[in-house]
Amino acid sequence: MSRILVVDDEPNVRLVYNEELSDEGYEVLESESGKETFEILNREPIDLIVLDIKLRSESGLDVLQKITKQFPDIPVILCSAYSAFQDDYTSWLAESYVVKSSDTDELLKEVKRVLSKRRASQSRIYQA
After folding, report:
1. How far apart are the first and last CA of the chain?
2. Exposure of 95 by Cβ count < 10 A (0-12 exposed, 13-18 middle, 19+ buried)?
3. What stretch of H or E contains 5?
4. Of 33, 34, 52, 126, which residue is the least packed, with the fewest Cβ within 10 Å?
5. Tens-digit pLDDT profile for residues 26-66
6. CATH number at residue 86
7. Range of the domain at 92
């Protein structure tokens, strides 16, 4: 079972994502800040991070940069209600970018795609 860390400062968003991802068979952990995210990453194996760009006390793009430096093997899907962030070069560090919506189909599709890609690359590493 894949473990997904949802990082969002909005409890309602975390709740919806947790329910939707859990219904798809994923184990979901939640964080509301960069500090809490790194506490979790340092103690738990995580397969994928779903990261909000606008966190209450910090920029999700700053958190993304730290994640990619410290945990380069963990893919990140950025989520934002604002499509303008797609043009920020820092967002290119993420594996994918999804515009937030009440319809989670796009997010679920990207989660499946990114995890499938990660599994394929890991199996190539183990076969080598």
Report:
1. 24
2. middle
3. strand 3-7
4. 126
5. 999 999 999 999 999 999 999 999 999 889 889 888 999 99
6. 3.40.50.2300
7. 3-127
